[in-house]
C-alpha cells in the first residue's frame, strides 16, 4: 500500500506493526485493529498468509475487514470464536507507566473495545509520538453516542468538564461510525484520574462507548528512531 506515504511517522508505524505481526502464530484467533498502524500490520499478516501461515481474524472496522479480505485472510465472528488469542491495534495516546490509552480518532473505538475485551493479549503498536505522561494532553477523548438526543448528551458531557465538538468527516458531513452512531470529541485537557473519568462517562445516558482504554493493555510496541521498545503492563 502506498497510502501511508504522506505520514512522516509511517516508517516507524510500519516497524512496530511488523514486530507485532510476528506474534501471530499458526491457528490463532486474531483481533485486527484499525487505523494506519494497524493497516501495516494487516498488510504484513497478508504477506505471511500468502506464504502459508493460517489463522483466523475478527476485524475492528469495516475498513480493516475489507483490507483483510483483499489478502484472503479468513474472517470469523464472535458467534463461532468468542475468545481471541491476540488483538493488535494502534492508539492515539499511550500513558507512560499505566499503559492506559486514548483510542478512536479513527472512529472505530466501539468495536475496538469489544475486541480488546475479548482478547487474552492486547498488543498496542505505536510510534513514539504517541507516548504521553498524562492522557488527554494532546488529543480529545472520542465518545461514541446515539444520534437521538445527542445535543442533550453533549450537555451532560460538558457538565463533566469537557469542551465538546461533534466529529465531521472529510466532506464536512456528520461522521457516522460503523455502528451507525456519531462521535463527540471531548476535550478535557490532561486527565488526572482517567479511571474515574471513564466511570463518569459510562454513566451518561446516550453514551455508547468511550475511547478511554483503562487497564486493558498487555504490551505496547513502540517504534523510535533508535529502534523498537517493548513496554509491559506492570
Ligand atoms: C481508530 C484508532 C486507531 O488505532 C488510532 O486512531 C491510531 O491510528 P493510527 O495508527 O492511524 O495513528 O483508535 O479508532
UniProtKB/TrEMBL annotation:
GO terms for biological process: pentose-phosphate shunt, non-oxidative branch. Pathway: Carbohydrate degradation; pentose phosphate pathway; D-ribose 5-phosphate from D-ribulose 5-phosphate (non-oxidative stage): step 1/1. Its EC number is 5.3.1.6. Pfam families: Rib_5-P_isom_A. The active site is at 112 (proton acceptor). It comes from the Bacteria. It catalyses: aldehydo-D-ribose 5-phosphate = D-ribulose 5-phosphate. SUPFAM superfamilies: D-ribose-5-phosphate isomerase (RpiA), lid domain, NagB/RpiA/CoA transferase-like. Belongs to the ribose 5-phosphate isomerase family. Catalyzes the reversible conversion of ribose-5-phosphate to ribulose 5-phosphate. This is Ribose-5-phosphate isomerase A.
